[in-house]
Amino acid sequence: MNNFHSSVSSFSRTLSSFFDERLSRFNFATSYIELMILMNNNDQMSQKAIAEQLSLAPSTITRFVDKLKKEG
Q1: CB 39 within 8 Å of CB 45
Q2: What is the rounded CA–CA span in Å between residue 67 and residue 12?
Q3: What pLDDT score was predicted for residue 71?
């Protein structure tokens, strides 16, 4: 089971790197996309719940939302 977890983690990092590289020209990372998807699907979700879902600090969510608003 530990080998499976290691493989999944490695795949996740590879996938994130792939998308981060392509999104960098827009000055975004995959976390921003995950946030937008989560907010689109859960418009009543609290900042704390979003932070927990994305494993980020609530202050990071605030920063991300501010940046997304600024970028339109």
Answers
A1: yes
A2: 25
A3: 83
Side-chain-facing half-sphere of 46: CA atoms under 13 Å: 5
For the chain, the residue count is 72
Distances in Å between the Cα of 24 and the Cα atoms of 1, 27, 30, 34 are 34, 5, 9, 15
d(CA 71, CA 12): 27
Token digits of residue 11: 């795949």
| Contact predicate 36/68, CB 8 Å | yes
Residues 6+ apart with CB under 8 A from 49: 42
Summarize pLDDT for 1-53 with one digit per residue, the tens. Answer: 678 888 888 898 898 889 888 888 888 888 888 899 998 998 888 989 999 99
Residue 46: DSSP 8-state = -
